[in-house]
Structure formats: C-alpha cells, structure tokens
Design brief:
The longest helix is centred in the middle third of the chain and has 22 residues, at about 75-95. It is elongated and about 65 Å long. With about 170 residues, it is mostly helical. Helix 1 (about 5-15) crosses helix 2, helix 5 crosses helix 7 (about 120-130) and helix 6 (about 100-115) runs antiparallel to helix 7 (about 120-130). The chain contains 8 helices and 2 strands. It is about 55% helix and about 5% strand.
C-alpha cells in the first residue's frame, strides 16, 4: 500500500476506528477511483461519494472530520518563517544605511541582542514596520482577565495575553 493510501487509511480510522477491514479497503479503493490524490483532497469529498461503502452517519462523521480539520496556524507560521524568515531577516539586516525606518532598526537591535530568540515574531514585526502597519491591526493584546465578550468585539486579529512580542 502506498504512503498516500496509508495516510488516507489513518484519516479514516481516526474517525471510524471500528470500521471492518473489508469496508476500509473498499472505501480506499473508492476514494482512489474518484480521483483522491492527496490527503488534502479529502476536504472535497461529498456524502454521495461514500454512501456505497459506509452508512450515512459514518459518512457524515468522516466529512465533518475532514472538512473541519484544524488549520494549525502556529505550525504553518513556523514553517513559513523557517522557509522564508531567514531571507527576510537577512534582507533587513543587509539593507543599506539610512533606508530603514527607526522602528525596523529598533526591532533588529532587540532581535540581535537575544541569541536564542525565536525569529517568527521578529519577522512579523519587521514586515509590519516596513509596510508601516500598526501593531494593533494584527494583534489584540488582552488582559488575562478579559471576558469572551470583550475579546469578540475585536475581530480579525491574533490574541496575545502576554507582552512578549514587543
């Protein structure tokens, strides 16, 4: 069995752990026959694609799990910073004198002083400073004692309950 089919098999069994092996195999064959090429294709599956192999409630459980998979934003951000962050940092560090804003310089000085500092917040702050975006536009810093209602009034932002980014 291919690594792809193993991944899909695992995605099925996480949701339906007691599904008999013959049903699992039938379902995998069906998914392959309708063109599933990657685990991310599972989000496009419809109930009618699965009904020949499993019961309607099993279909709905799978669809719910596959369509509401968590987007692990921290993981994605760390991956992006790992791939492109060093390039962004190098760009700002090698920029000719006088072309950086004071805010970019302040961020770089603080980042360079901390030897084992996570570059992710630094990269985000550098980009925001470079494009003259307001810090408040991205991150909502809330008091630890804020209620959900307090936080819900502020939309489209990350929530930080600490002061570690600045």
């Amino acid at each position: 069995m291919s690594a792809l089919m193993e991944d899909i098999r695992e995605a099925v069994l996480v949701v339906l752990p007691s599904l008999p092996e013959d049903k699992v195999q039938s379902l995998l064959n069906n998914l392959a026959s309708i063109g599933v090429k990657s685990k991310s294709d599972l989000q496009f599956i419809k109930e009618e694609d699965l009904l020949a192999n499993i019961t309607p409630i099993q279909c709905r459980r799978l669809l719910n799990a596959w369509q509401t998979q968590d987007i692990k934003i921290l993981e994605k951000m760390e991956q992006a910073v790992e791939e492109k962050g060093k390039l962004i940092l190098r760009f700002f560090q090698q920029k000719t004198a006088g072309t950086s804003t004071d805010e970019v310089e302040r961020i770089l000085v603080k980042y360079n002083k901390e030897e084992k500092c996570d570059p992710c917040p630094c990269v985000i702050l550098l980009l925001m400073a470079h494009f003259k975006e307001k810090y408040e536009g991205l991150i909502l810093q809330a008091d630890v004692f804020s209620t959900a209602a307090d936080v819900e009034r502020e939309q489209s932002r990350f929530l930080s309950l600490q002061d570690s980014l600045s």
